[in-house]
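Whether sequence alone determines local backbone shape is best considered at the level of individual chains. The sequence in question and its structure tokens are set out directly beneath this paragraph.

***
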Amino acid sequence: MSATFINKLKNVNISGREVFPIVEGGKGIGATNGQSAGAFAAAGAVGTFSGVNAERRDETGNIIPYIYHSKTRRERHEELISMSIEGAVQQARIAHEISGGNGRIHMNVLWEMGGAERVLQGVLERSNGMIHGITCGAGMPYRLGEIAEKYQVYYHPIVSSMRAFRALWKRTYSKTKDWLGSVVYEDPWLAGGHNGLSNGEDPEKPQDPYPRVAEIRAFMNEVGLNDVPIIMAGGAWHLKDWESWLDNPAIGPIAFQFGTRPLLTQESPIPDVWKKRLLTLKEGEIFLNRFSPTGFYSSAVNNGFIQELRARNDHQIDFRNQADSEFSASIPFGPRARPIYVRPEDAEKAANWIKAGFSESMKTPDETIIFATPERAASIHEDQVNCMGCLSQCRFSNWMEHSAEHSTGKRADPRSFCIQKTLQDIIDGNDVENQLMFSGHNAYKFGLDEFYAGGFVPSVKELIDRIRTGY
């Protein structure tokens, strides 16, 4: 690290205040909350709590689980929205109190979350100025600027390319530019959670983020956003590795979002078993996959949960309802053993899978069937039936919020999973090896970084002090 690094690492104006150029990544269900966000803000940085099914507690401090009592999906969806607003307001209040008026408090919202706009507006109506900014990605949040302007908070759209931001700017953001707090560039190959890979980008061929971010800055300068910072998200570990980005006219005002490192702090709400697992990860254990019910790529630890999904997809063959010259072999399907038709070589595969215990066949929306154990098939069916509409549209359950029938019109897809269930289970401390464990691709560095030697878990302030040194 050069001697000039500390001088080059300058504060930036984010959501109306000069702060350290360090931002807590928002993550998802329960992985950031008011305590972690408040600690980041108290240390002079930007704290971010997740507005996705935020944690609720009763007057004695006990967690109130998300339990649904209604019989229909639509009714459960309304319960979800109500509980989500209540939880997010609680977390905003906690973050505000812990911050002591320092730093900034942001709320992260998944735009493809079920009821996203209603949750966002419901929280802002009740948060009484405790939230300074809204970060939002996983989709194209065209109405984000309009909502932010209405409640006089800053908005921070998450994009993975200049084209995405340009589309948002031209359609709506140019009308609400005074409340644009930053543009968050989330690297689609390095970030944890859901990734914004386009159809034209190869998931196996990562691109250098520098020219992509410089392209965003060039467009921002064209439209008069020279002083609006860019927040680099995904891949940030040691700031010394980003020194060439500092005081760089091609990049402009810059801050860095840390999503993975804050998981291993004293204030982090994830369970201890998850924290301990982070210290054992090896390079290459993070798997970029497309199993998510959102349809987006996502990055997660290649644990038992992901491995079961991979096996589920591997036990898959094409079928037809009518025989033809290619699909000429008949196999029984369903409780009535009605015939469906597969390729002869696939009939042999199916017979072997059934002998191995994968005896339940399930149709997908793509004229394929998968083979699962009876226990897994029953679990998939139960999760699909219990859907509460946590996404605006879900390929796993075929729920769709904005349609008269609340259906995508497609068959529910058994190759995916109920994302709310597994994320709630892992944050509650259930078996982390068999639940979805989102992670950035740099998580293996916990085991290599001397800062964490001997299993050291820093406070948020200790982490921020460390990051500011370049390490």
The longest strand covers residues 104-110. The mean pLDDT is 93. Residues 304-434 form one domain. The longest helix spans residues 73-99.
